[in-house]
Structures are given as structure tokens and as C-alpha cells.
Amino acid sequence: MKNKALKRLIYGLSVLLTTLPVFSFAICSSEKQDTVTNNGYKIKTIIVDPGHGGRPSGTTGNYSHGASGSFSSERNVTLALAFKLQKAIEKELAGVKVVLTRSSDDDVAWQKRADIANANKGDLFISLHCNSLPGRRIREVVGHKHHKPIYRTTEVADRSGKGVLLLVYGFHRSKEEEKAIKDNLIEDDTEMNTNPDPNDPESIILMNEYKRKYRKQSIHLAELLNTEFTETDGRHSDGIREQGILVLCHSAMPAVLVETGYINNPDDEAYLNSEAGQDEIVASIVRAITNYKAGIEQVSQ
Fold first, then answer.
1. What is the DSSP string of 243-274?
2. How do residues 244-268 score in pLDDT, each as one tens digit?
3. What is the dihedral of CA 112, 217, 166, 182, to 10 degrees?
4. Burial bucket for residue 59 (CB in 10 Å: 0-12, 13-18, 19+)
5. What pTM, to 2 d.p., does this model score?
6. β-strands 45-50, 97-100: how paired?
């Protein structure tokens, strides 16, 4: 790896991110407030990922249709939101292109979604989903025999979930993220186009810095989204959590999965399917991206 790349990295490590707030959620409270910066960096491409989908025509393999409510399905809601979000971003953020990972009802495999994001050199990855709680098992007395109760266990729908949830990738899949970064960023950089040696200190420093930067930026975007949903829209939030989601850790860029609401909750389902509800969700995401973009590009100047 060239010395110029390492010098650029070390210089970047000395720059403090004074424009970003201290993260409030526990899994990143120990992270430093610094970053690698690229002079003149601009967000140009945002990947919008409508979660799940129907069985592709002419196929017999598995597909992920997602959650369902009483009258709607996750795959249809996320696609409707994705189209609206694409239009809103390209209208509000001049010079920013939006790439959808699917534009029809057909499902797209998790890895292909990440491949689409990486092939288009996305600067942000936003995956849209609808949440749902699994059924609860209850035990009830259905009779007696010899003066002893007879029990029956049944499953009932749990419709108590409400509001949004933001997910970022978990550390336990960091090796997979390393591969995505190596394949899609380091080898594409004209100053770092040698094959990174996993035993080379320069390569290790560079790889760790990419991972740290993307994780911190993912969490920062998730916090901006959470603020918009809760403080602007007044919606309940289950907060920000980390999960080992393939499509997030295989996308070599800051990435957040947005659970936009609980589709098996009647109130949330009605909201998710209404024009007003979808417009409000999209507007909140656009505001969060706008604030994120302004902060990142200011730091990079």
C-alpha cells in the first residue's frame, strides 16, 4: 500500500468531527469523535432499498415476502415508500441520484441488493421495512379431569408494537464488511489499488478506519432519522439497535435499516398505507438526509 494513502489516513485521524453530536446510545459511547475526511467530498448517490418482494415470475426458489397486516403487505408498502422517497430526494437535493434495489414486486436477494449498492458506488444505503411482532403463546384452562385443570396452549396475535425502529449492522459481522470495503473501495482507489495485505500494519489501520468511519456515520444518520420521527412527527420509537443484517454489512457505505411502523398494528397499518402517513415518513427521511449531507460535506471542505 502506498505511503501517500497512509499519510492521508493519518492526517484524517487528526481531524475532529466538531459538527456531530455525541452519540446517545450505549453501543458507541466509547467511540472517538474523529474521522477520515476527503477534501471536497459530496454525496452524489443514495441507494434506497424497498424491503422484501413477491416471488419473481418463472422461479421456484425461496423469496422473502415480508410481514403482513390485516389488509396490506410489507413488500407493497416499502415499494410505495421507495418510489416517493426517490422522487423527493431528487427534487430536494440537487445533484443527488437515487438508485432503487428493486422497482417491481419481484423480490431481490439480499446479496444482490448489496451488489447493486456497491456497483453504483452509493454514498448512503437506506433500507425500508415494516415491523411486526410474532404471536404470543398463552396457556389457558379448558376443563378439569379428576379435579385437576386441563390446559391448552394457543398462539394469539401480538398487535402491541407501534412506531419506528432504526437498525445498524452489528460488530459480529465485521469480517464481511471488511470484504465489501476491500472489494468496492480500497481496490477502486487509484492511490490504494494494490491488494491489501491483512498482515500489513498500513492495511490494518486503513481497513479499521474505514469500518469505524462507516459505523459512526451509520449511527449518526440513524440518530438524525430517529429525531425527525419522534420530535417532528411525534411518533413512538423503539430506538436504535445493532443487528447482523447481511444487506447492511455487505454494503460498503454508511447504511441504516428503517422499520417504518408495525404493519400488524391496526393504527400503524392504516398510517403506513395512507398518503398522509407515507408523505410524512418520506419527508422525515429527506430532512434527516439533508442534515446528514450538510454535516458530512462541511467536515470534508
1. E--HHHHTSSS-EEEEEEEETTSHHHHHHHHS
2. 788 888 888 999 999 999 999 999 9
3. 20
4. exposed
5. 0.78
6. parallel
